[in-house]
């Protein structure tokens, strides 16, 4: 399934990684107006309301891929989701779903992410898989993914048993359902309560730090909206 993907608004990231090798297209109907961190937060500017049903629980969902260089920078260099998690109310659940069809071994990497979640090693696995894909370029086969887990202390038997478990299959189904429901058109994408999509092109683009700070500010604002 082809996706039309964009860079994170006009962020000064040096790499536009939200497209495949064939194209990089802007999302239509999003504001390209440069914002400032203190600009009033308005629907249609910093965020877009999706035509979806609100989440039954309070949650923030990030859609990402280990194959995406800008997702890598958002996670490893700017610690975007960690900063958002600290800024929003403690009752908000943070969820991260890996795209099933973006880049090489996308399905296998999505499954690896499910395994990491079931084993409770999301943070370690995220860092290790990003490094293996983006820095070391050592992920060429599904066995290479398994090797990353072995280095994290997960033996092959545990890896295979977990891979074939009901819990991993359930997590994979959750990822697929969330992608189908919210149809993320760019990565990383952050959606609050399955309704509010943070519009990256409406955020402060004066610097990388200002951009991330504005991302956090908008996420915190949206987390406090009561959906009727």
Automatic annotation (TrEMBL):
It holds the Pfam family DSBA. GO terms for cellular component: periplasmic space. Residues 1-19 form the signal peptide. PANTHER family: THIOL:DISULFIDE INTERCHANGE PROTEIN DSBA. Coiled coil: none annotated. It is found in: Periplasm. PROSITE patterns: THIOREDOXIN_1. Residues 60-198 form the DSBA-like thioredoxin domain. Disulfide bonds join 68-71. GO terms for molecular function: oxidoreductase activity. The keyword Disulfide bond applies. Belongs to the thioredoxin family. DsbA subfamily. The keyword Signal applies. Keywords: Disulfide bond, Periplasm, Redox-active center, Signal. It comes from Gilliamella apicola. This is Thiol:disulfide interchange protein. Transmembrane segments: none annotated. Its main location: periplasm. It comes from the Bacteria.
